[in-house]
Amino acid sequence: xxxxxxxxxxxxxxxxxxRRNFVGALWHGAFLAVGTALTQPTTxxxxxxxxxxxxTIWVGGLVTVLTVAGALPQIFVAxxxxxxxxxxxxxxxAIYLRVASWALxxxxxxxxxxxRPQLLAWAxxxxxxxxxxxxxxxxxxxxxxxxxxxxxxxxxxxxxxRQALAGPLAVGAALLARRVLAxxxxxxxxxxxxxxxxxxxxxxxFGLWIIREPPHVxxxxxxxxxxxxxxxxxxxxxxxxxxxxxxxxxGFSLMAFPFYIVYARHDLGAPAEALGWFILMxxxxxxxxxxxxxxxxxxxxxxxxxxxxxxxxxxxxxxxxGLSRFGWQGMLPVLFLVGAIIAGRSVGFNSALLELAPAxxxxxxxxxxxxxxxxxxxLSLVGGILxxxxxxxxxxxxxxxxxxxxxxxxxxLPSVGREGTSGT
Length: 424
Hints:
Elements: H1 2-38, H2 41-53, H3 56-71, H4 74-81, H5 88-112, H6 117-149, H7 155-183, H8 188-210, H9 226-250, H10 253-266, H11 274-300, H12 302-323, H13 331-356, H14 362-372, H15 379-386, H16 392-409
């Protein structure tokens, strides 16, 4: 009798902790969407860099620097983080460094103004490199924490629920961005956007304080020796190779993403205030599509979800070519699909990674995955260089071919049941 009462009490406590953690993670994801909506690399940052420099190489190069800065530290961070019983302090440190980065960038833009564009461009590179490096620092513990606090059968509901809450906030942020870009003088308008993004990230961090992170039961006091760790990495590469191949090939879509905005501005005559509409369409695409992606993951698994996302990603560059006859307005549905694809890649590949990774090695698998897909980071730079000699239509056509190959390769992804085989 007493044992039964104790079991019921423990079950009730576990359920209460699950609800608390679910709410905290949803809060963080919802307000994170405000910062993300105001600082999209494919819209806001790409347009800002194009305004500063007028160079496609600068646009593609900055996206490359940011991606490398976010991915490169992760494999070293994972080895250091993995033995720790609690990962939350590392995640909070990374978030508050990111808040400081956006606040510093907003202040630099306001101080330097429009008279020193080259100095401002280099300041942008430096501050954003720090921001994305902190993202790499925070991404490793975040994956592990979400894997511990959200059960496998609830992950699709979590990603979808997070987006349902984030949606109105992200749309509101996009509408704010449209108004700021249309009514505030350059570059103060960008300073305001980045300042509000810093506030959004700060508010998002409150959700992490709500979470009660369970300790890692297999954690050790010291990091694993590098020789032994290298053996673990070799085994992980074997598990991840098919997933990485799909990520790299479908990642060619990222070669085109920053240049849809530049194409609309330079070749299709889009006015400056059109950027606000592009931001809004991308945010709406991510918000609405995430509800669909979450449903697909929960019902059919990450493999089928990635297949659908890859197929849409294959058609999007071709759509950009076809709709260009309607002027810059033709890019609005393209940016909607860009938002849907970015959201789909996040939900699909994160879910697939959690399914593949053993629970005790989630940080390592997450970091290794980021390291193995690092070649994708250079595609934006390559795209910027090619556009010095190629037309936008030629670049978009090439991108569609590579992404289509990745879409076909999704059929060879390992099929993991909803409850996973190793990541839970």
